[in-house]
Amino acid sequence: MRAFLLPRRPICAGCAGWRLSSFRHQLSTLSGQPQTRYSSSKSLSKPNLPQGPCRTRFAPSPTGYLHLGSLRTALFNYLLARATNGQFILRLEDTDQSRLVGDAETRLYDDLRWAGLSWDEGPDVGGRFGPYRQSQRLKLYDAHADRLVQEEKAYRCFCSPSDLEAHKKQAHEHGLPTTYPGTCLSISPEESEERAARGDRYAVRFKSAKAPAVIQDLVYKRYRKAEPEEDFIIRKRDGFPTYHFANVVDDHAMEITHVIRGAEWLISTPKHVELYNAFGWQPPKFAHVGLLVNMERQKLSKRHPGVNMSWYQSEGVLPPALLNFAVLLGWHQGRGKDVMSLDEMVESFSLKFTKGDIVVSMDKLPYFQRQHTGRLLTEDPPNMTLLTAHFVDPIETIISNIESSKSGEHMDNNIDPSLLGDLVPTMSPEQGNPQSYILKALRASRPPTSTLESFVGDNKYLFWTVPQTVLEERLNDIDIENLALESKPATAGDSITFLETAFRNKPAPWTAENLNPLLKKAAAAITFVDKTSGRAVETGGYSFLRWVLLGRDKGPGLGDVMELLGKEETIRRLQLASKVASGRVGGGD
Ligand code: GLU
């Protein structure tokens, strides 16, 4: 059974929620930041948002699939770009060729689009700063690495992996730092050129500063590591750049103004800033957002069911519900309104992020699912893509499985087939349009609160006719002995005839709006007499009509029910009820 509102197994039941929720870290307190190169006349001046359009990027490595944390990163960057009329860029960081996962790239596009995100530039859509796959930009990195070598800000390192390994081992044994000892630093530029020219394999190392770099972060403020960086590699022996180098070269080349990424990258940022400084470039502004952790305060593991996109997809979680859930993992809307569509997130986005680890509690997900289900079923114009995928198609399948179970072909359902008549004509593909009928039924009903199976069960007589036997049995629930029609004692048959005449003659259109006033009058004309008080129960006609049309099942308002069933089916049900009420069924008339 496809649970559509609740994860079937609560994952972190009873979780207390976010660990830190202070928003002291406001953008406005940061001063002395270099201005970014990107400028535009469009100034938006929203509080806690940078002035002018921001260019942001999501830069995943196709070494795995999108997960909750990376979706959140993509979302924050997307929101900042949209909120400032800027651009959101997708860049594939595929320089670690040994770890590539075959279908990661296509899955990434599919999952991001499934979630409702789009990008202005990227490997699949192009853009003026392309190509957007790092493996296709190797010449650019080479040129930049060469430039640093020429300027003596970097140097070739001819040490073999086994040399480096041996050094590490020895240093470790002597309790010394295992960082690169600077073996090739002393090679003269001439010798280095010569060895490179004769084909010796080499990596390129950056000459790091002697003192640790100080960086400014929009969330963590001033950040400085205790130790200086070692001379880190910027170009590997296989000719590919390292993550740090390609990331910096590309963020500069693509005119990225803001980098929002997980706090696990904070530790790498001093390296990046050193590279920016070496090139004489302005670094983008950085915002490192809190790590996602589980209830035990450990980094979310890949095995946590709420990590994988495929889990949300198979559980039927609505993409807007997931985005809403994800956006609040480290960001706060600030105006006490936590249910938001993507557009509303854009509208209220700010750079007020939470500092510190974020405990992921799945408890809130069902709440967002319910809220977004309600929105989806009522909003105009309807979002047909989501409605069809999440409601209409699965409901159609459930109904057709139940139909098969009547002939014993399919037994897995929660509804007793003996309670069901035939499918209503509109549900048969030959006579009606089941998809649009299901959609109308959904929109007329209260938002489903549990599973789609129970929605079908609760509203079964919108989809199937009410069998005579069910009507007969449920007639016992109504006190037809004490019925009055327009204040005079009447039989159930009289009352039904009265209703039938009223509705049969009702001029078109057969819509709830047009039927409701008549329905109200007719319902008021039929009263029950309360046996003890002897008083008439007003609007008894509603209860009576609910028996006629739905065998007394709960469901949408009767005007909507009549509109859904259509005039012909409504009249047919009235006639059948008339027979049942008059006790003439089966006796011939
Ligand atoms: N390629 C890195 C990743 O896989 C990007 C980190 C960053 O945003 O700089 O997450």
From TrEMBL:
<dbReference type="InterPro" id="IPR014729">
    <property type="entry name" value="Rossmann-like_a/b/a_fold"/>
</dbReference>
<keyword id="KW-0067">ATP-binding</keyword>
<feature type="domain" description="Glutamyl/glutaminyl-tRNA synthetase class Ib catalytic">
    <location>
        <begin position="55"/>
        <end position="353"/>
    </location>
</feature>
<feature type="region of interest" description="Disordered">
    <location>
        <begin position="33"/>
        <end position="54"/>
    </location>
</feature>
<dbReference type="GO" id="GO:0005524">
    <property type="term" value="F:ATP binding"/>
</dbReference>
<dbReference type="GO" id="GO:0004818">
    <property type="term" value="F:glutamate-tRNA ligase activity"/>
</dbReference>
<dbReference type="GO" id="GO:0008270">
    <property type="term" value="F:zinc ion binding"/>
</dbReference>
<dbReference type="InterPro" id="IPR000924">
    <property type="entry name" value="Glu/Gln-tRNA-synth"/>
</dbReference>
<dbReference type="InterPro" id="IPR008925">
    <property type="entry name" value="aa_tRNA-synth_I_cd-bd_sf"/>
</dbReference>
<feature type="compositionally biased region" description="Low complexity">
    <location>
        <begin position="39"/>
        <end position="49"/>
    </location>
</feature>
<dbReference type="Pfam" id="PF19269">
    <property type="entry name" value="Anticodon_2"/>
</dbReference>
<keyword id="KW-0648">Protein biosynthesis</keyword>
<dbReference type="InterPro" id="IPR045462">
    <property type="entry name" value="aa-tRNA-synth_I_cd-bd"/>
</dbReference>
<dbReference type="InterPro" id="IPR049940">
    <property type="entry name" value="GluQ/Sye"/>
</dbReference>
<feature type="domain" description="Aminoacyl-tRNA synthetase class I anticodon-binding">
    <location>
        <begin position="433"/>
        <end position="576"/>
    </location>
</feature>
<keyword id="KW-0030">Aminoacyl-tRNA synthetase</keyword>
<dbReference type="GO" id="GO:0000049">
    <property type="term" value="F:tRNA binding"/>
</dbReference>
<dbReference type="GO" id="GO:0006424">
    <property type="term" value="P:glutamyl-tRNA aminoacylation"/>
</dbReference>
<dbReference type="Pfam" id="PF00749">
    <property type="entry name" value="tRNA-synt_1c"/>
</dbReference>
<comment type="similarity">
    <text>Belongs to the class-I aminoacyl-tRNA synthetase family. Glutamate--tRNA ligase type 1 subfamily.</text>
</comment>
<dbReference type="InterPro" id="IPR033910">
    <property type="entry name" value="GluRS_core"/>
</dbReference>
<protein>
    <recommendedName>
        <fullName>Glutamate--tRNA ligase, mitochondrial</fullName>
        <ecNumber>6.1.1.17</ecNumber>
    </recommendedName>
</protein>
<dbReference type="InterPro" id="IPR020058">
    <property type="entry name" value="Glu/Gln-tRNA-synth_Ib_cat-dom"/>
</dbReference>
<keyword id="KW-0547">Nucleotide-binding</keyword>
<dbReference type="InterPro" id="IPR020751">
    <property type="entry name" value="aa-tRNA-synth_I_codon-bd_sub2"/>
</dbReference>
<dbReference type="InterPro" id="IPR004527">
    <property type="entry name" value="Glu-tRNA-ligase_bac/mito"/>
</dbReference>
<keyword id="KW-0436">Ligase</keyword>
<dbReference type="GO" id="GO:0005739">
    <property type="term" value="C:mitochondrion"/>
</dbReference>
